Amino acid sequence: MVDSERKPILGISKQNSFYSHSNGGFDDDVDDPELGSKGGGLEKSVAEDLDPVTLTWKDVNVYAMPKKGCCNRGQKLESPKQILSNVSGMIKPGKLMAVMGASGAGKSTMLNVLTFRNRGSLIIQGDIRINGVVVDKTKIANISAYVQQDDLFIGSLTVREHLTFRALLRMDKRKSREQRLQKVEDVIYELGLKKCADTVIGIPGRLRGISGGEMKRLSFASDLLTNPPLMFCDEATSGLDSFMAYSVIQSLKALVQKGRTIICTIHQPPSEVFELFDEVFLLAEGRVAFSGPIPDALEFFKSNGHPSPVNYNPADHFILTLAIVPGKEKDCKAKVKDICDVYEASQPYLQMKEEIKTGSAQVSQSFVENTLNNTSRYGASLLQQVKSVFWRSWITSIRDPLIVRIKFVQTIFFSVILGLIYLKTDDEYSQEDIMNINGAIFVIITNLSFTNIFSVLNVFPLEIPIFLREYGSGLYGVGVYYLSKTLVEIPFLILIPVIFMSILYWMSGLVHDANSFLTATGIAVLIGNTAASFGYLVSAAVPSVTAALAIAPALMIPFLLFGGFFLNNGSTPDYLIWLKYLSWFSYGNEMLVVNQWEDVKNINCTSSTQCIPDGNSVIKNLSFDKDNFYLDLVDYKLFDAESLGCFNSVKRFTMNGSFTNKGYSPEVITTGGGPKDNKIHPEDPELGRQRQESSTDHLDPVTLTWKDVNVYSIPKKGCCNRGNAVPSKHILKNVSGMIKPGKLTAFMGSSGAGKSTLMNVLTFRNSGDLKLDGEIRVNGVKVNKPKISNISAYVQQDDLFVGTMTVREQLTFRALLRMDKSKSREERLQKVEEIIQELGLKKCADTMIGTPGKTKGISGGEMKRLSFASELLTNPPLMFCDEATSGLDSFMAHNVIQSLKSLVKQGRTILCTIHQPSSDVFELFDEVFLLAEGRVAFSGSVNDAMNFFKSNGHTCPINYNPADHFVITLAIEPGREEQCREEVNKICDNFEASSAYKEIKSKTDELANHPEEHLKQMMETLTDSSRYEASIFQQVKSVFWRSWVTNIRDPMVVRIKFAQTIFFALVLGLVYLKTSDSYDQQDIMNINGVIFIIITNLSFTHVFGVLNVFPLEVPVFMREYGTGLYNVAVYYLSKTLVEIPFLIIIPIIFMSILYWMSGLIRDADAFLVATGISILVSNAAASFGYVISTAVPSTTAGLAIAPALMIPFLLFGGFFLNSGSTPDYLVWLKYISWFFYGNEILVVNQWEDVTQISCTTSSSCVSNGALVISSLNFDKDNFYLDIGLLFALIAAFRIIAFLILLFRAKRSH
C-alpha cells in the first residue's frame, strides 16, 4: 500500500490510500467499496435523528471484596482491594475515545462499571450520568449498545438474515415489519456490509464465511438497529490484522461523525489505527493518568519529562511509560503516582470535574420518558419471538451438513450393516434365533438411544454463549428458546427411527407382520424421542460439548444395564430398582420383546430337552409382562418435562454468574482489572544484561547469504484439470540478501509478501510443492538441509512442549539427546545450567511448563525463551525465529527480543520474521529485510530504511512506528491493486538499482569466490549423515523417562484411572451382587451378562485410555523426530512400555473387586485365569486403541471414530449374536474380535465345572454349565487357542500402529 508524504499525527493528511478519511468519510473498504462512500456523509443512509449523549462518571471507586469460605473461619479477613480510585471522566457526542492502560490498570473494570455489568463481587461508589441524569443498568441498556470482544453469531445465517432476526426481535414494538426490514438495509449500507449481505457468517474451521473485519462490523450493525446514541466497544480490534483493524475503527469514526458517542478499550493499536481516535483516556494503577485529545496527551507527557521519541507510536509510548515492570515495581509505581498526581491537579482535569458537577446538557422530556425510562424488556410479542427463533433454528438445522446429510446417511448405513449381521429371511424360529432376535432388539434400542442423545448434545452448549447474550439483551424468553429448539428436532426424531426400522426390521427376521412392524416403528420413535429428551437434559446442564460427550455415556450406563438384557428383569436388586423404573431401555425392551414374541406359537427345537417352546416362554424367561405394554408407553413422556425444567434451572444458574465456561462466560472482574493471563508475569530481572560469567562454547562466526532465489508454485495435477493449463505462480523473484554475525535482522512485509516462503527456503523446510532456483551459502560454502540443520537452530512460531515437564527437565532431555556425542553427561548438565542462566530462566527452572487450560505453568515469555534455550544447547551460531513475539503482550514481546539481542552480542547470526512489532520492540533490531510482492524492497539498517523510503517520497511521520510505516507503504490495498503494485514495483526497482543492494550482491559473490579459509574448512567438515547424536539405548532411556514422568504427573492417569476402576467395579458388583454358590436359570443370563460387561468395560476403558497417547504429543514428536532427537521405533516403544503397568494393575484391581461380588465361580484357580484373561483383553483393546491413536489427527477425532470401529468387534463377541449364527461373509470379523476370544474363554472358565443349575419349572431349563457353553456355540477345546490368538491380536495391532506412526513421520519429513 502506498501513500504520499504523511504528516505527524497532529493534522495528518493522507491521499490515495485506504487510510484516507478526508471530508469526514473514508474511501473504498477491503470488504465493500461502498463503505463510507465518497462525499463523506453516508447520504444514502436514512438513520433516525439521534439524541446527543454526554456520558460522565465522577469519583468512581471500586473495591474487590475478599472471598469468604469455610477455610478462613477464625482468620482475619483481608481488607477490600481498591481497583479504581476516584476515577472521573467525560465523553461528548461526536467523539471516539480510546480507553488504554497497561495490563492490570483497570480498563476492563471501568468499562464494566460504566455498563453496569459483572458487578457481583465488587463494591462500587461514584456517580454515572447521561446528559446529567443519573442512570442505572436498565437506563444505560435502553440508550446504549455494548459490542463485546468476542463476536458471537449463528454461523449458518447470512448477514442479512442475522440482522433481520435482530430487527424483528429487538426494535421498538411500534415499528412495522416494513420499517424494520428497511432499517436492516440502512444498517447494511451504513456499515459497508452490502457486498457480503447474502454471505453466510461462517463457522471457524468448518464453514467458510465473512472476514474478521466484516464480522466485527456485523457486531456493530447488530446493535445499531436500535439506533443507540451511545456505544461501548471492548477490544474492538482484537484478533484482526492491521488492515481489518483500521477498517473497523474507521467504521466507528464514521458513526461518531453522525453524532454518536463511542468509548472503546483497545490494546496495542498500530500507528494508523491510533490516529483515528479523537480522545484517549489513560488508566494506571486504577487512577486517571490522562483524559483528552491525543495531541494534548503528547504535550502532557512531554511536560512531565516523558516525551515521545521520534518515530514512535504514541500508544506504545503511553503504555510503556505507565507500565509496572517486574523487578522495578517500586520505581515504576512512584513514576506512575507522580504522573497521576500531576494530572489530577491539572487545570483541564479540574475543569472537567467542575463541568461534570455543574454543566448538564439540556434533556428533552421525550428522551427521558421514551428512552431512559423505557421499562419494556422485550421488543417483540411472544408469538413473534417463537416465530423468529424457530425460523432461525430451522435454518441452522437444514444448512448444517452434520444434521441434514450425516444423520440420514449414518442411519441408513447402520441399519443396512445391522441388517446384514442379523440377516434372516425365513419366518421360522430356532433356539439360536431367540438369542439373536433379542440381541437385535436391544441393539435397536441402544443404537437409537446413542444416536439421538449424541445428536442433541450440542443443541444447547454450542449456542449457550449466544443464548445468554441474546437473553440478556432482551431478544426472547427462555421458554421461547427452548420450545423453538426442541420443535425443530421433532421431524428428525420421527424420520430417523422410521427409516432405521423400515430397513432393519425386515432384514433381521423380526416377526413378519404389518401391525407388528408399525407398532415396533412407533415404539422406536418413542425411544428416539425419550433418548433425545434425556440428551436435552444433559445438553442444558453442561457447559460445553466436550463435557457433554464425557458425561453422557457414564450417565447412560445404569439405564442400559437395567434394560433387561445384561441383567434379568427379575434379578434387579431392591436398592437399585428405581434405576430400572427410570430406564427407557427397560420399557422399550419390554414392549419390543412382547411385540415380537407374543404371537409366536412355536420355536423349533433340535434336541429333546432344554428348549424354549414358544414366544410367551421367551417373554417369561426374561421376566417381562405383556400386560405392562400400555403402561410402558405412558412412562416414555416423563423425560420431556424433566429436560425443560432442567434447562430453566440451568438458565437461572448461569445468568446469576455461578456457572461459567471459559469459552463463553462473561469476563470476570479480578483485582487486577483484567483476566489473569493478561497480567505482566514476573520475569528474571537479569534478562537482557550481558552475562560475562556465562561460559558459552566458542562460536565460529557465520555469514548467511542467498542469491537470486526464485520460487515457483508447482501446479497440482489431477483428473479435473485435463485440458486446462494451470500456470505456476512466481512467489519469490530474484531475492538476494546477506546477514552477518552479531546482527539481529527482522524479516517484514505485508500479508502475501513472501516472508514465510523465504524462511522455509533458507531452512530447507516445507518445499515439497515448490520449484526452487538460486543458491544459499554459509560462509561462502553451499549448504543443503543436513548442513544447515547442523549449524543452525529453527525456533518455530508455536512453542511445543510436554507440559508436565519442568524447564530444567525439558532442557536436560534435549541435552541428553541432541548435544554432541563427545560431551559427557556432566558437561551436558553443566550446559543446561549455563543456558538457564543465560536466558533468564533461573526463577522458573523447577516450574512445570504447563498445559494451556489444564495445568498452570510458566508464562508466555518464559515459554518462548525456553524455545530458544532448547535450541541453544547445541550452541548454534545461526538462528532462525518464526514470529518470535506472536501471542505475547508488549512487555513479554520486548523481553523475548531483548533475549535475542543478548544472543547476537555473543557473535550469533539471527534472523526473525515479525508481525506488527511495537515501537519499543522494533528499535531492538539491527537490520530489517523488507519483502513486497515476492521482491526485495529493502535490506539494511533501520535508519537506512527510513532514509531510503524518504528518498522515494514516503517519509515516516514523526509519531509513527517505522515498522507500521514500512508495512503500510508496501501493502496492496484491495480495490486499488494495480496502482499499489505499480508503486511497490517502483520501490523495489529503486532498491535493486541502489548502491546498497549492489554492494550486498557484490559481497555475496566475493564471499562465495574467496571465503575465509578457516570458516570454509569449518563448513566443509560438516557431514550430511549424522542424524542422531545419542545411542539407541540413550534414546530409549530418555524418552521412556519423559513418558513415565508425564504419566505419573498427570492426574488423568494416576488418580482418575484407578478411581474410575474401583468405582465401576463396585457399582457393577452391586448391580450383579450374588452371595450364594448355587445357580438358577436367571443366573445364566446374569452371569453371561456380567462376563460380557467385564470385557466391554475393560475394552472401552483401555481403548479410550490410550486414544490421547499419540495425538496429544504428535506435534512434539514430529518436531523432535525432524530435529533428530530420536527415531520412530524408540518413541513408539517408550510410549507403549510406559502404559504396561496400568494395563496389568487396572484389570487386577477391577477383577479382584467384581469377580467375588458378582457370583462368578468361587475358585482360586478360576479367579486367577479370569484375571489373566482380563489382562490379555485389556492389552488387546489398548493395542487396538494404539492403531486409532496413531492414525487420527486429534483426540477429538479418535473419540468420534473409536466407538464406530469397536461396534463390529462387540457385536461378534458372542453375546448380541450367537456364535454359530455369524454370516459367512462377516465371519472374518469374529476372528479378529478380542471380545469373542475373551468371551469364549471366560464363559468356559465360568461354566465348565458347574454340574448343577436349579430349575423351578418342568421344562425349558438348562441343567448344567456344559449346556450353557454349547447353547452359546462355544467350545471348551478352544481355550488355549483363544489365548494364543489374543496374543497374536496384541502383536498385530501394535505392529500396525507402529507402521502407521512410521508412515506419518516419514511423510511429514
Automatic annotation (TrEMBL):
InterPro entries: AAA+_ATPase, ABC2_TM, ABC_transporter-like_ATP-bd, ABC_transporter-like_CS, ABCG_dom, ABCG_transporters, P-loop_NTPase, Pigment_permease/Abcg. It comes from the Eukaryota. PANTHER family: ABC TRANSPORTER G FAMILY MEMBER 28, PROTEIN SCARLET. This is ABC transporter domain-containing protein. Residues 676-698 have a biased composition (Basic and acidic residues). Residues 13-23 have a biased composition (Polar residues). NCBIfam families: 3a01204 (TIGR00955). Residues 13-43, 666-698 are annotated as: Disordered. It comes from Magallana gigas. The chain crosses the membrane at residues 402-423, 435-460, 466-483, 490-511, 517-538, 545-567, 1052-1073, 1085-1110, 1130-1155, 1167-1188, 1200-1218, 1225-1244, 1279-1303. Coiled coil: none annotated. One of its GO terms (cellular component) is plasma membrane. The keyword Membrane applies. Belongs to the ABC transporter superfamily. ABCG family. Eye pigment precursor importer (TC 3.A.1.204) subfamily. Its main location: membrane. GO terms for molecular function: ABC-type transporter activity; ATP binding; ATP hydrolysis activity. Keywords: ATP-binding, Membrane, Nucleotide-binding, Transmembrane, Transmembrane helix, Transport.
